[in-house]
Amino acid sequence: MSGGPPVRLTNATGVTESGGSWSPDGSRFAYMQLHNGLISLMVVKTSGEATPVLLREEPAAPANPTRIPEWSPDGRWIAIFGRPSDGPARGTWTLISPDGKTVRSLEQVNGGEPAVLSLTFSGDSQRLYGIRAEPDHNYLFSIDVNSLQEKIIGDVGRDFTPRTYLSPGVRLSLSSDGAHVLFPSFRNSSSLWMLEGFDPPGWGMELREMLPW
């Protein structure tokens, strides 16, 4: 933050590395890696040019776009989205401990929330927040981390579906007071116009319209 040249986080070569999340003490970073058709959750020390450690990997699936992992403020969990080999055919959200030894599936919460592009923790790590995109609604909801009970907070409106041009790129960010959540969204629009003042088409244009290709 004081300036100077950037420092590469990992020493991995020949792989694609995507965005991730800091551990609470800033000493480690969790991110997703794509290599040889596998998508992997990696953890690496933030000392620079460090060797990453594999926590989990699975076959990359176009139907399950990569989500950004989220580290809980208390350091106990990393929320990730994926489809482990012993899990359901579609992707689900899962909580995994930073050492990879403990895994809690969110399968019982709306089937693991496959339509949710990002989850973020509350400041006390007791709740997860997400936005579920449905055909006519975008519901902001919370999940109790211990009981896995879901609560619908409200509908943010059809015009505010979490989306981004980057993949992965959707991330929910909770304000420090826990009162607001920030996320990216965009809307496409198009218009049909009639233009005047152009010269009529010449013989070359007419000939091109007559050709079969």
Protein model, in words:
- The protein has 213 residues and is mainly β.
- The chain has a single domain (16-182), classed as Prolyl oligopeptidase, N-terminal domain (Methylamine Dehydrogenase, Chain H), CATH 2.130.10.120.
- Helix content is 4%, strand content 35%.
- A four-stranded antiparallel sheet has the order 1-2-3-4, with no helix packed on it. The chain has a four-stranded antiparallel sheet with strand order 5-6-7-8, with no helix packed on it.
- The longest helix is centred in the C-terminal third of the chain and has 8 residues, at 203-210.
- The protein is extended and about 75 Å long.
Question: Measured on Cα atoms, how large is the radius of gyration?
Answer: 22 Å
Mean pLDDT: 89
Q: How far is the first residue's CA from the last residue's CA?
A: 58 Å
For the record, the count of structural domains works out to: 1
Would you give the CATH topology?
Methylamine Dehydrogenase, Chain H
Summarize the helix and strand pattern as letters: EEEEEEEEEEEEEEH
Count every beta strand, where a strand is a DSSP E run of 2 or more residues.
14
- Text of the CATH class: Mainly Beta
Question: Low-confidence runs (pLDDT<50, min 5 residues)?
Answer: none
